[in-house]
Structure formats: C-alpha cells, structure tokens
Specification:
The structure holds 2 protein chains of 2 kinds. Chain A contains 3 helices and no strands. By secondary structure, chain A is mostly helical. Chain A has a single domain, classed as Helix Hairpins (Orthogonal Bundle), CATH 1.10.287.3510. By secondary structure, chain B is mainly α. Chain B has 6 helices and no strands. Chain B is globular. The model of chain B has no long low-confidence stretch (mean pLDDT about 90). The chains are: A mainly alpha, B mainly alpha. At the A-B interface, helix 1, helix 2 and helix 3 of A face helix 1, helix 2, helix 3, helix 4 and helix 5 of B.
C-alpha cells in the first residue's frame, strides 16, 4: 500500500483533533500551550503535504510563517503564564478568571 | 511514491507521532508530557523529510525542539508549585465531542475528495526554491517577511516587559 496525500492529511487531522481536545479539556495553562503547538504542527504537516503533492512551494513558505508565529506566540504566552503564576500562585485555567464578567 | 522504505518509515513515524501526542494529552506528569512533546516534534520533522521538505525539517528541529520545547520545559520548572499534574477540566466530554466530530468530518472530507495529486517525487533541495519563493521581486513574500520580523521583535520585547520584576 503506497503512501499518498490522503495519509498525510488524515495524520494531520488526527494530530489536530488530539491537540484540540487537549486545548479545550486541560486545566494547566502550560499544557494548553503544548496542545496548541501540536495543532500548529498538524497544520504544518497538511501545508507541506499539499505543497509536495502539487509541486507548488508556497505551502512551505506558509509553514515557515506558521513557525514564526508559533515561536512568538509561545514566548508571549509563557511570559503571561509566569506573570500570572507570580501574582496568583496558580496556572489552573479554571482559576484564572479575573477577566470574566 | 512506491518505495517500501518510505512507506514503512511513514507508518512508523505516524504511529509514534500520534502515540506521543496522546501521551502529551493524557499523561498525569506534565514534565513527561513535555518530553513526549519533544518526541512528537521530532517525528513531525521526520514526516517533513518523507515529504521531501528538507529545509523545513531542519527548521522544525531547530525552532521547535531547540527553542520552543526548551521554553516550555523552563516554564514548567518555574511553575512547579502546583504538583497536581494536568487534570482535565469540566468541559472534558464537550471537548472530546468537539474533537471527535472534527476528526470524523475531516476523514470523511479527505477520503471523499478526488485529489489531483502529482505523485512523482520532487527532485533537488528545496532551500533555493524556498528562497526564490520568499524573496523574488514580482510574487515574493518580502512584505510578510518584514512583518514577521517586526512581530518577532515585538514578541521578544513584550515577553521581556511581562516577565520583568517590578
């Protein structure tokens, strides 16, 4: 059985669903960030798979931009989490509700 | 792509990738979850190699394994005061439902579409092709590239300002 575009897309969908479940269900804010990284990786796999099976390199350019945004997002996200941990002594996403109405 | 080696390595990488992603979500110990996240990043780099995206595979190892994983492990160390692991919240079943519905929808769409895929393997390194696509004068991505640089600078300064002791 040869590996085709569908295999990579389904692998990407499985990874994205796992990350989506984790990001919605977990309470530790750092674990939520880790799950978001898994989702971004899944999207990158889909981008590169489309790029390889259409021989158009633009998909890989988009994957590079996704990596840049992921790096920026994780730096700022972890800074926010550590700042909240300093002031409230918790990283539990259900207890960090100071901006809820 | 009828190479037996590529097929075998795809299945090995896919199984390890999905298993380590599941471990990230379901392990109680968050430090072990972070280590499995590193394994997941490595296998994604392997998938990029199978897709003949050599530059992106190296960038994946450098950025995700080298920078993002280290940042996440540092953050875990700095927030170690909460030792209760990573429990699931109140919306566990809703989240599972959302994930399952998304997965089933995607699999149905992917298997039901007639993809016009070019199966022969692209030859040569992608590095110079990527550089042409990014920086060519007429239809390049020079302005998004500059905006990405500004975004990174803003993120670095923002992180430093946030984390600084008052």
């Amino acid at each position: 059985m040869t590996v085709g575009l569908e295999h990579f897309l389904i692998l990407s969908a499985i990874l994205f669903s796992i990350g989506l479940y984790g990001a919605l269900a977990k309470r530790n804010a750092v674990v939520i960030l880790m799950c978001i990284e898994i989702m971004l990786n899944a999207v990158n796999i889909a981008m590169v798979a489309f790029s390889r099976y259409s021989h158009i390199i633009t998909g890989q350019v988009f994957a590079i931009f996704i990596m840049v945004v992921a790096a920026a997002e994780v730096a700022v996200g972890l800074a926010i989490i550590i700042t909240i941990y300093r002031s409230r002594e918790t990283v539990d996403a259900e207890k960090i509700d100071l901006m809820k109405w | 792509m009828d190479n037996v080696g590529i097929t075998a390595s795809f299945w090995v990488l896919a199984v390890v990738c999905v298993a380590s992603a599941l471990a990230v979500v379901f392990l109680r110990d968050i430090f072990r979850a972070a280590l499995f996240l590193v394994l997941c990043f490595f296998t994604v780099a392997g998938v990029f190699v199978i897709l003949s995206a050599d530059f992106l595979a190296v960038a994946q190892v450098l950025i995700y394994v080298g920078a993002i994983a280290v940042l996440i492990i540092f953050a875990l160390m700095l927030t170690r005061g909460t030792q209760q692991g990573s429990p699931s919240g109140r919306f566990r079943f809703t989240a599972f439902l959302v994930g399952a519905v998304f997965l089933v929808t995607m699999i149905l769409v992917v298997t039901g579409t007639d993809w016009q895929a070019i199966t022969e393997t692209p030859t040569g390194s992608t590095t110079s092709a990527l550089a042409h696509a990014l920086f060519s004068e007429e239809e390049g991505f020079i302005l998004p590239f500059e905006i990405a640089a500004a975004l990174l600078l803003a993120a670095v300064i923002g992180a430093i300002v946030l984390i600084r002791e008052k």
